[in-house]
Amino acid sequence: MQFYGINLVFLLFLVACSSSQNSVVQVFPSRFYLDVSKDILETLDGNTFVAHVKGVNPIFGRALKIKVRGLQVESVSETNASKVSTAFRQWHQFRQILKESKTVEIRNLERSTEDFAVWADLYIDGRFLGDFH
Predict the structure, then answer these.
(1) pTM score, whole prediction
(2) Which of 59, 79, 106, 119 fits a 20 to 30 Å CA distance from 19?
(3) d(Cα 62, Cα 51) in Å, to the nearest integer?
């Protein structure tokens, strides 16, 4: 009788261990569509904006600072007046592109290693933003 009791405990232990290995893994999409009028909150510079992204992994947060992969822009904090002027022009152009778009899609989100932001590929009205420049 004691033999069956030990085997029963061992069997329950195996079942408990195996069920924890088969836990459900939540899958998050790799594409996110943004509503231009509701989700895009602010344009920070010529390649960065803040947006509400529904369905993203909670580790990223709800309002994300999104940097567009592949867009090189000047910094507004430059000391060179010509570069500052270029930076404001880039910011204004990027802001207008986002504002006037019908659809905005971000793909392939990746956490930035430099600051609290997310790198993403940006598609405006179905076209990769790199195609505009």
Answers:
(1) 0.73
(2) 59
(3) 8
